[in-house]
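Our consortium's second objective concerns turning raw sequence data into structural hypotheses that experimental partners can test. To show how far this objective has progressed, the report includes one record in full. It was chosen at random from the queue rather than selected for favorable results. The single chain below, 261 residues long, was entered without modification.
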Amino acid sequence: MNEAELTFTEVLKCDRASLYLDRHRRLPPETCRVLSDILKRRVAGESLYYILGKAEFMGLEFRVTSDCLVPRPETELLVETVLSAASAFSSARVNILDIGTGSGCIAITLARLLPQSTVTATDISPAALRVARDNASRLGVLDRINFVCADLFPCQPSAQYDYIVSNPPYVRSNDIDGLSAEVRSEPRIALDGGPDGLDLYRVIIAGAHQYLRSGGALAMEVGFDQADAVRQLILDSKKYKVKQVILDYNSIKRIVVARKD
């Protein structure tokens, strides 16, 4: 649905078809005021998903607030990568670490679609973790996700994870002011990847091997022009082999997967 359809279906509590079947009906003044308020906030640059308080990710509805990033379609590819690889693990149970969970969309979707999985989800923001826990509760997987307030990794290294996934901040610091007002309304801590956009990748690549089992994999979403640089960081670390660089639906190198030797 486009933004107008999404807005009207939400406010009118109807499906898309009803918008057009009932297109001649008059709206009550209170509904018009609600729509007007939404339009004013949208024109001011606020994300429609923050205004409505929810967003869809892989067919699931997630509550979102300004404390976390809005889930994006390209991140679905990161989840699909793990789902595809999970069948290769010999263990009946798959242990996953999601670094920088935000709304919890990655961790929760994996927990839903991999019933044999247990997931640890970290975030530095207590407010974001509250949103993620609420989403996990509503979507029925709170009992299989351990939410941890931490700066990237859990406190104690433990080589227990089959997969580590992350969509870290990757916008170059100097580029943030040039982003659309909608994107700038998202938390800066979830956008700012440092001078070259790679600060968090360096830390994740340096530390992930301590948490991965032998043969475990690290999968990360990257910015549109960062895959080659991230791949080189992985090779320079000498702790992993680059397994895959996956293109998104616009033929942009979007996901980098490395395997621990």
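The partners drew two points from this record. The mean pLDDT is 93. The CA atoms of residues 136 and 217 lie 24 Å apart. Both points have been shared with the crystallography group to help prioritize constructs.
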